[in-house]
């Protein structure tokens, strides 16, 4: 008892829909839209400009952490808990 393909009760053809939504053979707006994806507006440049100053801020923060670690004395070196706290 062999059955054929299941009948489509809605009349919707998925294959025809996928073919219709594909990229058109000729896009008249292709040249007008090209500037959005090249040069200043490339994906890398848009990502980089999304976080202005992140590189400088990271270096400045790392420098401050190193300065604080090596040059600022917080007065707690060598003290154990409970000693000298009267």
From TrEMBL:
GO terms for cellular component: mitochondrial inner membrane. Keywords: Electron transport, Membrane, Mitochondrion, Mitochondrion inner membrane, Respiratory chain, Transmembrane, Transmembrane helix, Transport. It is found in: Mitochondrion inner membrane. InterPro entries: NDUFB3. GO terms for biological process: electron transport chain; mitochondrial respiratory chain complex I assembly. The keyword Metal-binding does not apply. It is a single-pass membrane protein. Its main location: mitochondrion. Accessory subunit of the mitochondrial membrane respiratory chain NADH dehydrogenase (Complex I), that is believed not to be involved in catalysis. Complex I functions in the transfer of electrons from NADH to the respiratory chain. The immediate electron acceptor for the enzyme is believed to be ubiquinone. Belongs to the complex I NDUFB3 subunit family. This is NADH-ubiquinone oxidoreductase B12 subunit family protein. The lineage of its organism: Eukaryota, Fungi, Dikarya, Ascomycota, Pezizomycotina.
